[in-house]
Amino acid sequence: MKTKTLNENFIEAIKEKIPNSVNLASVLMDTLYIGKEAIYRRLRGEVPFTFAEASIISNSLGVSLDQVAGANSSRNALFALSVINHKHPIDTYCAQIEDYIRIYKAVKDNPTLEWYVASNIIPQVFYLDYDNLARFLLYKWMYQHEKINYIKYFSGLKISESLREKQKEYVKISKEVALSNFIWDNMMFCSLVNDIRYFVDINLINKEEVDVLKKEILCLIDELEQLAAKGYHKPGKSIRIYVSNINFEASYSYLEANDFKLSMLRLYSINEITTADRAVFELQKEWIHSLRKYSTLISISGEMQRIQFFEKQKLYVNSL
């Protein structure tokens, strides 16, 4: 089905959920936290709704995305592939961050909201506060993608101030979730160190840049250790951190509230696929919770294991 047809069907489905006396644009502005003109561009069909926007509207207004797309079979599920466009990598990366911000703005005040992440790499919401580390992980993806060949050296990748602000906004708003749970692969910092070392070995990152990255990573480890010891971002915003005793092959996450369910799977380093399909959500939730059986809680409790874990991470980083 063409994007234009999907968008038109989606708009019609929204209209069916709203009384004639209520202004559609005003409802969508309040739901999506975007401006009046941006809403009207979507309603006129000039810009399609993103999957993140459609998911928020679906959960807020009860619009069935399956019916809009004609995917009613129990064997089908709709996924949104949030992939960085190799022709415009920085622009689409920024749009991806904006989508995340929009999702969290829509649900952050729900007191029942719970966020679960099982990650074999450092989650974005931790490293995006560190400019050079965030730039390195974007650079690594761009270098690996053979169609993006206009940046060779790490020093050649420049990040705009507006993108920095978006990254930090995403980090800030993610801390508003009532309860966050993280299961970390015990090798996630080791993998990062190996990545940096590779680019050093092929002379694409110089010693000064390594020193800057090393300093930021050690600061991040200190921040995470303090966070784990406290067990909260701020009062009322709790965090539970587990360290897995086994390695796992991908990063999985989900957001759940009494009226909102969204599951995500990290893909191709910094990309992600997202779905609001309830059957997929339950499978993802079950898988993530199964990983806790092989994990140790290091937030608030598990002081000895917490100290050992972070000391081990510092040894990895200091080996650079």
Report what the structure shows.
With 320 residues, the chain is of the alpha+beta class. Helices cover 52% and strands 15% of the residues. The protein folds into two domains: 3-69, 434 Repressor (Amino-terminal Domain), CATH 1.10.260; 80-318, no CATH class. The chain contains 13 helices and nine strands. Strands 1, 2, 3, 4, 5, 6, 7, 8 and 9 form a nine-stranded mixed sheet that branches. The radius of gyration is 21 Å and the shape is globular. 32% of the residues are buried. Residues 71-85 have low confidence and may be disordered.
Structural class: alpha+beta
Q: Count the E strands.
A: 9
What percent of the residues sit in helical stretches (DSSP H or I)? Answer: 40-55%
Domain module count: 2
- Low-confidence runs: 71-85
- Which value, in Å, is the CA radius of gyration? 21 Å
List descriptors.
320 residues; alpha+beta; 434 Repressor (Amino-terminal Domain); 9-stranded mixed sheet; 13 helices; 52% helix; globular
Which SSEs are present, and which pair or pack?
Layout: H1 3-17, H2 24-32, H3 36-43, H4 51-61, H5 65-69, E1 80-82, H6 89-107, E2 114-119, H7 124-127, H8 131-144, H9 161-174, E3 179-185, H10 188-201, H11 207-230, E4 232-234, E5 237-244, E6 252-257, E7 260-267, E8 271-275, H12 278-291, E9 295-297, H13 303-318
Parallel strand pairs: 2-3, 3-5
Antiparallel strand pairs: 1-8, 2-6, 4-5, 5-9, 6-7, 7-8
Helix pairs in contact: 2-3, 4-6, 6-9, 11-13
Task: Give a brief outline of the structure.
The protein is α+β, with helices and mostly antiparallel strands and 320 residues long.
